[in-house]
Amino acid sequence: MKDIKRIVLTGGPCAGKTTALVKVIDHFSGLGYKVFTIPEVPTMFTQAGMNYLTDNPDFFYEGEKATLEIQLALEDKFMRMAQACTEPAVIVCDRGAMDISAYMKPEMWEKITRELGTTTQELRDNRYDAVLHLVSAADGAEQFYTTSNNASRNEPESEEGLKIARLLDKKVIEAWTGHSHLRVINNQDDFDAKLKRVLKEITHVLGLPQPIIEERKYIVEVTGEMPDSIDSEIIQTYLVADPGCEVRLRRRNWQGKVVNVHTTKKKLSGKEEIVTERQVSNSLYESLLQQADPYRRTIRKKRKSFIWKGQYFELDNYEVPANLVILETKGIATHESVKFPPFIRVVEDITGNKQYNNYNLALKR
């Protein structure tokens, strides 16, 4: 059976998804892929008469249940079509199943998934190969925020509307948190740079060669109160690998949940690499630990992930090695300045410093 990748393109209101979808279709069609796109089901339902702001709880419940049913049915039908194609194919979903959960109470979501014979874990962790979240223009690019390009959008164009949009942005990220390939795509000074990051991430998922790009990294001190963040604990073990390859086994714990990811990086040259990722079960994780590199220790760190002024950051407080706090940006263009939060003091810019790569930090001294 063909390995068809299913990718979710999601985000807060006015994030640029529609434009990104057009770019994705054009780019990957040009590379010989048959690109299938699943339309945004809530928009289809709104245009057909569904009112997601209704005060009628029964109407709301049936509408949300039907929304999830149609979402899953469309994805399954298009997967079968993709399997029948002779050329390589990829499926890009304009929002996915977990987006629906962000707009209702957890109790209702649990009831709906139970009635449909599925679970949050199945829909979030196992159904999609990647989730790309485009940050709303309401966070860091307010001058571009508008609701006029989507008739189904309900938040007002005002400061209150911006707050609502930022809250929805956060809820959607939280709904998808735990997926092994969740990537948050920043707002950029140049919107084209945001689109290029989307193409880069999909290139990664498809296992195609891509340029080696150094994310910006800084040794920092936390000097004030942190904003709302997604907190997790990470255990990272490097496995014995062939020369030119880096194999990593990562376990991430958050809110009592566990996700294990096996990652392989293979350098094709000094400028290009292929990165492959796969989620593994707890039993396989334990088995793979037997292949741990004896010359490298296990990395342990506590991570806080957050958005500040439309830019996405990961703050890692290392337990092994100890007394090290590193702030890493995600997807900020080389020409763009970093919008450091006021509660962060930069001690040293370590971008490109191989000494602080996790692979090298793990070396036993």
Strand content: 25-35%
Strand ordering within the main sheet: 6-11-10-9-8-12-13-14-7-15
Q: Which regions are unreliable across 5 or more consecutive residues at pLDDT < 50?
A: 147-153
Question: What percentage of residues falls in helices of 4 or more residues?
Answer: 25-40%
| Shape call | globular
Cα radius of gyration in angstroms: 21 Å
Please, how many helices? 10
Provide the structure class: alpha+beta
Kindly report how far apart the N and C termini lie.
Answer: 46 Å
Count of DSSP strands:
15
Main β sheet profile: 10 strands, antiparallel
Q: Sketch the topology as an H/E string, one letter per element.
A: EHEHHEHHHEHEHEEEEEEHEEEEH
Mean pLDDT: 88
Structure description:
The chain has 365 residues and is α+β, with helices and mostly antiparallel strands. Helix content is 32%, strand content 30%. It has a 10-stranded antiparallel β-sheet. The protein has a 5-stranded parallel β-sheet with strand order 2-3-1-4-5, sandwiched between helices. Strand 8 (230-239) and strand 9 (245-254) form a beta hairpin.
Explain the layout of strands and helices.
Layout (H helix, E strand, L loop, with lengths): L4 E7 L5 H14 L3 E5 L2 H8 L8 H28 L4 E6 L2 H5 L4 H10 L4 H7 L3 E5 L24 H18 L5 E4 L5 H15 L4 E2 L5 E6 L7 E10 L5 E10 L2 E11 L4 E9 L1 H7 L10 E10 L2 E10 L3 E7 L13 E6 L8 H4 L4
Parallel strand pairs: 1-3, 1-4, 2-3, 4-5
Antiparallel strand pairs: 6-11, 7-14, 7-15, 8-9, 8-12, 9-10, 10-11, 12-13, 13-14
